[in-house]
Amino acid sequence: METQTLSLNHLSRIYGQTRAVDQVSLDIPQGQFVSIIGPSGAGKSTLLRLINRLAEPSQGEIRLGNTNITQLRNSDLRYWRRDCAMIFQQFNLVERLDVLTNVLVGRLADHGFLSSMTMRFSDEERAEAIRALDRLGLVPRALQLAGTLSGGQQQRVAIARALVQRAKILLADEPIASLDPGNATRVMDALRRINREDGITVLVNLHTLDTARHYSDRIIAMRMGQVIFDGKPQDLTSDVVRDLYGESGLNEINEAVTSTAARASVPA
């Protein structure tokens, strides 16, 4: 299968006088695990929303291979959002539905209007959802209401849903920010395992440098909407971080690491 590079070309998003994303150009090869770091307001979340087309670029373009993503409309845009799955900090599950149905929602982009409205799924789709839950260690929870799960379990359900979407790219926006250290590790391990085993490109926004260094092939640092570092994890030294963020930014990240480490571990 031909590999395709995700390319961002002079991508910008402007809100009034604020350039939330400012002339970002990146090439991300298929199968790479990329962490995006930076202080609050750096533009990390806006960048992922632009890639998924949840936000529209003010300037520039997004391409996957020869396809201009910024020009997609209607059903083509819906299929792009299927192929480029978004995993949110708040999980975005339907809490009153069981886990299995929440995972099966990932198939709706391929359904017609009627079957989407009635939530009708084939036996093959149900088997695929069970396999996805098995990869995330959640088969025993399949018939449990999503709202009764722990945060870490809900985030793994969201990852299983992305697998059932058959996504080619996973965009994870602060997926571990609200989790205790144990569940954060389970979620990050799951993302990396899927990246390695399935060759799915992963872009994940993170606050903690240690997590970014441990899991990533590549780290991108943003400040004030701009990319100010793009390189290998081992090149992101404390001196580089201080140069990139200044002392206040470095302190903010260190405080986030300390706060995360101080949380009590909760069983999955």
Summarize the structure.
By secondary structure, the protein is of the alpha/beta class. The chain has helices spanning 44-52, 74-83, 99-104, 113-118, 123-135, 151-164, 181-198, 209-215, 238-262, and strands at residues 6-15, 18-28, 33-37, 59-64, 67-68, 84-87, 169-173, 201-205, 218-223, 226-231.
Question: Can you tell me about this structure?
Answer:
- The protein has helices at residues 44-52, 74-83, 99-104, 113-118, 123-135, 151-164, 181-198, 209-215, 238-262; strands at 6-15, 18-28, 33-37, 59-64, 67-68, 84-87, 169-173, 201-205, 218-223, 226-231.
- The chain has 268 residues and is of the alpha/beta class.
- A six-stranded mixed beta sheet has the order 6-7-8-3-9-10, sandwiched between helices. It has a four-stranded antiparallel beta sheet with strand order 2-1-4-5, covered by helices on one side.
- It is globular, with a radius of gyration of 19 Å.
- The two termini are 37 Å apart.
- Mean pLDDT is 90; it is low at 263-268.
- Belongs to the ABC transporter superfamily.
- Residues 6-249 form the ABC transporter domain.
- Keywords: ATP-binding, Cell membrane, Membrane, Nucleotide-binding, Translocase, Transport.
- One of its GO terms (molecular function) is ATP binding.
